[in-house]
Amino acid sequence: MDRMIIRGGSRIEGSVQVCGAKNAALPQIAAALLSAERLELGNVPEVSDIDTMLLLMRELGVAANRAPGHRLVLDAGGARNTQAPYDIVRKMRASILVLAPLLARFGSARVSQPGGCAIGARPIDLHLKALEALGAQVDMEAGYIHARTSGDGLRGGRIVLSSPSVGASETALMAAVLARGESEILNAGRDPEISDLAACLVAMGARIEGAGTHRMLVQGVQALHQARHDLITDRIEAGSYAIAAAITGGHLEILGAHLEHLGSVGAALESAGVQIWPTDRGLMVVRSGPLQAIDISTEPYPGFPTDLQAQFMALMTIARGASVIRETVFESRFMHVPELGRLGANISLQGSTALVRGVDGLRAAEVMATDLRASVCLVLAALAAEGETTVHRIYHLDRGYELLDRKLVQCGANIQRVAG
Ligand code: EPZ
Question: Domains of the chain, with CATH numbers?
Answer without folding.
Answer: 3-19+234-418 (3.65.10.10), 22-230 (3.65.10.10)
